[in-house]
Amino acid sequence: MTPTKLAAAIIGCVLAASASLADVVTTRANVSVEQALANLTAAAEAADATIFAVIDHQKGAESIGVELRPTVKVIFGHPQFSTPAIAASQLMGLLLPLEMLIWEDADGVVYLSVPEIDHEAKKLGLDHAHPSVEIIEDALAMMVAAAAG
User: Fold this and answer.
1) Which of 8, 20, 51, 143 has the fewest Cβ atoms surrounding its Cβ within 10 A?
2) Is the dihedral of CA 130, 112, 28, 45 positive or negative?
């Protein structure tokens, strides 16, 4: 590969990564990773939502001898919110159920990262005008606020 082609490939990768990060909303939490997870769990239970999975990336990293700051992925949802969206555009099944990444940076600050629903839904064929998009956005915002403390 020529240096020019290599540079073009690197620039393309950087631009693709930047575009992907634009589709993520990150909020600073006022609590620890553990407390944010507990807050999210309580909010999900109060909303009669289901927590489908809690993936502890730090624990997984430890299992192979890699150090990783606290990083937890939570998959959650409620069919009342997700089913109409998936019925309108089955590709929404790629976005739903919802996901939240709860993570701690190198300075010990905790963040909550979630997909930017409106933009992601549009890419999957569901316009913002569809009532499900606003319902999902509102539900996710409520869960982020609860988890953040």
Assistant:
1) 20
2) positive
Number of H helices, E strands in the chain: 6, 5
Q: Which residues contact 23 (CB under 8 A, 6 or more apart)?
A: 115, 116, 119, 120
Structural contact between residues 72 and 100, judged by C-beta atoms closer than 8 angstroms: no
- Can you read off the two tokens belonging to residue 33? 């990773």
- Tell me the whole-structure pTM to 2 decimals: 0.84
Task: Compute CA distances 2 → 6, 7, 8, 9, whole Å.
Answer: 6, 9, 10, 11
For residue 144, the 8-state DSSP code is H
56-106 pLDDT, tens digit each: 999 999 999 999 999 999 999 999 999 999 999 999 999 999 999 999 999
Domains plus CATH for the chain? 25-148 (3.30.310.70)
Has residue 18 got a pLDDT over 80?
no
Do the Cβ atoms of 49 and 146 come closer than 8 Å?
no
